[in-house]
Amino acid sequence: MLLLGLDIGTSSIKASVVDAATQQQLASAQYPETESAITSLQPGWAEQSPGMWWEHIQLAILKLHAQRKYDPKDISAIGIAYQMHGLVCVDKQQQALRDSIIWCDSRAVELGNQAFEAIGKEHALLHLLNSPGNFTASKLAWVKQNEPALYNKIDKIMLPGDFIAMKLTGNISTSISALSEGVFWDFQEHELSKDVFGYYGLDPQFIPPVKDVFTVHGLVSKTVAESLSLTAGIPVTYKAGDQPNNALSLNVLNPGEVAATAGTSGVIYAVSDQLTYDNESRVNSFAHVNHTDKQKRLGVLLNINGTGILNRWIRNITGDKLDYREMNEAAAGVAPGSEGVYILPFGNGAERMLNNRTIEAHIHSLNFNIHAAPHLYRAAQEGIAFAFRYGLDIMRSNGINPSVIRASKTNMFLSEVFTEAFVNATGLSVELYQGDGSTGAAIGAGLGAGIYKTAEDAFRHFKPLYKAEPSAKLTAAYDELYNGWKNVLLNQLNQ
Questions:
Q1: How far apart are the first and last CA of the chain?
Q2: Average of pLDDT values for 42-52?
């Protein structure tokens, strides 16, 4: 019995097939090989085509099949992970009405700030656990205000994973976890937020039927099954945002457990059993995949927009033909501190942990006679690690005090330079595991289909590849470097 996991990333689609009995990945594929484009029609805007996601999903699945490592007819369930906070609007014919306004788009920040004030900050935080900020509800309010003719054609709104599930099955659904990530959900009243819908004047009929995360969200249609060599009628049994899904893939399900990712954006994700919130909404709380009214499980999320995207930009802008492995080797040849170069990695829209400010990226203390491309490679990775430390200190001030973080050995954690900077700047050990978001989505599908009765059953073969530990000497050095980087950041924030 096989499970298919799909991960709708910003840069690409990843697909994996997992053997349900062993939880081992049999095959994986990515499409496209190069990063997908983000459309930015104005500064601070970021959009992607839902049609592009669907095209790339199909090509990724066919690419997966082409490896001939399994029989596609043995796939019994499908799970979907997706980039969070995006807005997809469809009409009654299930056609997308516009490109998706995705997670790193900043156009609705001011609308969210106004809603926060109007609803009342204390009330909003108590009920929503967040400011409306730049989340999906505020993006929908922007469409209502600026594209009224299009708004009037909307039948349903959804997140990116809901759209792909709809394309596979013809069925549209959502979950409390999804609604909370869009800041549509009232945690005190256990219902759609009357405050958000009332203030913005949004139509609650736009919200699809609410289902559990782990359940049948629809059955693959005959037409889609034939085109993708799947069995018609197999269920989509799991949908979750990429960060809750990443936590699931790392078996981070219980209070006190913490996961991290460092892909296009970076995240530290801690699980809590309290309806916790940050007074400034710099750290955000959403319903975790296993949250219920009776068993509260909140994902406390620190997000950094500018992480791997900075690493990619540095690679592109230097004009070198290096791959990321070669970049990492070049960076390793430079001493910690990059000989005085600091980089602020905040060039991918408004940063929540900086109070939704857009300060852009900055390269500080560059000397043409000293510094070369390897210094930039290292400074970029150190700057990303320091951004994690800055956000982690905010989480610590809110009572989140991890001692160990779990992460997949993917993306930035493939770099020994970054991993060293991360563990020593934060002072935390990191357990690194095999797998990625698509394998997590496959495991989620197994739970949703009832193939696994419990999480313990699903993760019975789960073991780390290795554990990266901070050292006293390097922690002291990186603490000093971090303070220098932080001063650069504070100077920028005070301008």
A1: 58
A2: 96
| pLDDT of the residue at 264 | 86
* Angle formed at CA 314 by CA 310 and CA 320, multiple of 5 degrees: 150
pLDDT of residue 38: 95
Each domain of the chain, given as residue ranges in start order, spans 2-246
- pLDDT score of 293 more than 90: no
> Which CATH class name applies to 2-246?
alpha beta
Name the nearest CA neighbour of 17 among 84, 63, 83, 86: 63
Side chain identity, residue 217: H
Q: What is the side-by-side strand order in the sheet with 266-272?
A: 284-287, 298-304, 266-272, 258-262, 404-408, 429-433, 466-468
Torsion of CA 117, 119, 121, 123, to 10 degrees: 170
pLDDT for position 263 = 87
Residue type, 488: V
Q: How high is the pLDDT of residue 321? A: 80
Tokens of 356: 């939704």
Dist CA 103 CA 10 (whole Å): 9
The yes-or-no verdict on residue 320 having pLDDT over 80 is: no
Q: How buried is residue 358: exposed, middle or buried, by Cβ count under 10 Å (0-12/13-18/19+)?
A: middle
Q: Which residues pair with 136 in a beta bridge?
A: none
Mean of pLDDT values over 454-472:
94
Q: Provide φ and ψ at 445, rounded to 5°.
A: -60, -40
Integer CA distances (angstroms), 183 to 117, 177, 287, in order: 15, 10, 10
The pLDDT of residue 282? 93
State phi, psi for 83 to the nearest 5 degrees.
Answer: -60, 130
Which parts of 349-436 fold into alpha helices (H)?
373-397, 416-426
**pTM of the full predicted structure?**
0.90
* Tokens, residue 461: 């073969």
What backbone phi and psi angles, to 5 degrees, belong to 429? -75, 150
